[in-house]
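Bumping with the actual sequence this time:
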Amino acid sequence: MKERMLDQKFCGTARGQVGPVERRLASYSRVFVVGYYGELSKDASELLAFAAEEIAARTWETEAAGASLASTTAQMTRRLHQNWGVISVREVASSSRAAAG
């Protein structure tokens, strides 16, 4: 888990101990994180899957042109993942510029 690595590297937390970053994240019931390379936390992945299923179910008959619901859901999942990844990269770049400037 990345939070453990951060605790050990930056907070001096010993291996096997719970540090402040891990403790803080554990205090939240859901954690929605998109990583620097577009990777998603478990909760964010579940949200993306739910959203893709809902979008596919609502648009399948009118926009899918004969494709199956499963195929439409897979397409929506890819689109959402790409969109969230692009947004994440833009926000990282924006915050990096703001911090430098």
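The tokens above came from a reply further down the thread. The CA atoms of residues 7 and 13 lie 5 Å apart.
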